[in-house]
Design brief:
The chain is α+β, with helices and mostly antiparallel strands. Helix content is 26%, strand content 31%. It has a single domain, classed as GMP Synthetase, Chain A, domain 3 (2-Layer Sandwich). The protein is built from three helices and six strands. The longest helix is centred in the C-terminal third of the chain and has 19 residues. It is globular, with a radius of gyration of 14 Å. GO terms for molecular function: acid-thiol ligase activity. Keywords: Ligase.
Length: 121
């Protein structure tokens, strides 16, 4: 049986809540997903978090900053759907995925994604 959970649901992984999620009894870090996204066309920056609403539904939120912009809203929506499918195929995610495109992602001075800021982004 396949399943997924945000790490706060697993008390045995205390201290790693902000690092990733469990998919089919396997830990998948946000860094793994972001690294895969950097290989996807047009992706300049990528940030991934899990957002749980009221402790019930878990949504994987993917924030992207792209090298090129889109001229039409339909192109942008198609691109987001393709990215979502790419992530599903790469990691066997069954959870809802939401792809959001931003002009720039929040980063530290050393170039790391600020996931704490993405939660409110």
């Amino acid at each position: 049986m396949s399943g997924y959970a945000a790490l706060p649901d697993f008390e045995i992984l205390n201290g790693r809540e902000l690092d990733g999620l469990i998919v089919n009894d396997k830990f998948v870090s946000y860094y793994q997903v972001e690294s895969a996204l950097y290989n996807y066309p047009k992706v300049f920056e990528a940030g991934v978090i899990v957002n749980s609403q009221n402790g019930e539904s878990v949504i994987l939120k993917v924030y992207l900053a792209l090298e090129d912009s889109f001229s039409a809203k339909e192109e942008r929506e198609q691109y987001c759907l393709k990215v979502e499918q790419y992530i599903r195929n790469s990691f066997s995610f069954k959870m809802p995925i939401r792809v959001l495109i931003r002009e720039k992602l929040p980063m530290t001075r050393s170039g790391k994604i600020l996931r704490s800021v993405l939660r409110d982004y």
